[in-house]
Amino acid sequence: MYYKFSGFTQKLTGSAPAAAYSPQGLRPSVPAESPAMVFATPTKLVSEAGSTVEYLGANRVPDLQRLFQTSDGVPIHLKRGVPDKLLYRTTMALTIGGALYCLVALYFAAQPNRK
């Protein structure tokens, strides 16, 4: 047996298979006209684009590969000099400070109330 939700009684009622598979308000329909294309025309033609894209800039990958692949004994996360050292030390200081803060907060939370 097939069931359908009745809008009048607000309950499930028995129905025919076709009515159960096509609930009210969801009837299949074919639109009268096709929707308009939103991006039908390209913003820049392929012939206008040229061989290189101007907003990417120069390719720095070979230079960075040369820098990072040299075996000079410096760890990879410190190869770029002072900015890398500053970021590394700041991260380590925040990590150690956060761990100490968590331990102090845990210590205070473990103390009984003094009331």
Strand-helix topology:
Elements: E1 2-5, E2 12-15, H1 17-21, H2 46-49, H3 61-69, H4 82-110
Antiparallel strand pairs: 1-2
Give the tags.
single chain, 115 residues, mainly alpha, two-stranded antiparallel sheet, flat
Helix count equals: 4
Mean pLDDT: 81
Q: How much of the residues is beta strand, in percent?
A: 5-15%
Task: Please report the distance between the alpha carbons of the first and last residues.
Answer: 69 Å
Computed Rg:
34 Å
From the spread of the alpha carbons, the general shape counts as: flat
Q: Could you estimate the helical fraction of the residues in percent? A: 40-55%
Strand order of the largest sheet: 1-2
| Helix and strand run | EEHHHH
* Helix/strand structural class: mainly alpha
Biggest sheet overview: 2 strands, antiparallel
Q: Please mark out the parts with pLDDT under 50 across 5 or more consecutive residues, or reply none.
A: none
Number of strand elements: 2
Overview of the structural elements:
The chain is flat, with a radius of gyration of 34 Å. Strands 1-2 form a two-stranded antiparallel ribbon. The protein is mostly helical and 115 residues long. The chain has helices at residues 17-21, 46-49, 61-69, 82-110, and strands spanning 2-5, 12-15. The longest helix is centred in the C-terminal third of the chain and has 29 residues, at 82-110. A hairpin with a 6-residue loop joins strand 1 and strand 2.
